[in-house]
Amino acid sequence: MPEGARIEQRLLLPHNIVTTVIAPEPPEEVLDFYEQRIEEEGWTLISTFEQGGVYTVFALRGRRDATLTISPDGRGGSRIRASVSRTEWHRLEPLDLP
After folding, report:
1. What is the pLDDT of residues 77-90, one digit of tens each?
2. What is the pLDDT of residues 7-62, one digit of tens each?
3. Number of other CB atoms surrounding residue 69 within 10 Å
4. Cβ–Cβ contacts within 10 Å for residue 31, how many?
5. CB count, 10 Å around CB of 82?
């Protein structure tokens, strides 16, 4: 986690682990931190996009996926919601249709 960040909530759902974190840095700086950490931890960064000041990052590692949503907290910091799938993805073979 970024320096000064704290976990606000952690949920263990049947197929996901969802963690909400509050960080003192603005979303742009938090995004840089997490993009770097994602690659250091062996995840493949698939996409990053921004809409209305909210950043969404999607990454894969093996057959698992992670989604981070980084938004302003209204006080100059960030609210980060991280969801990591515990369900493994499986390759779907194309159907042989006539």
Report:
1. 999 999 998 666 66
2. 999 988 878 889 999 999 999 999 999 999 999 999 999 999 999 999 999 999 88
3. 15
4. 20
5. 19
Cβ-count burial 36-64 (b if 16+ within 10 Å, e if not): eebeeeebeeeebeeeeeebbbbbeeeee
Angstrom distance (rounded) from CA 98 to CA 87: 32
pTM score:
0.79
Helices marked H in the chain: 27-40
Structure token pair of residue 75: 């006080």
Number of helices (H), then strands (E), belonging to the chain: the values are 1, 6
Any idea which residue has 């894969």 for tokens? 60
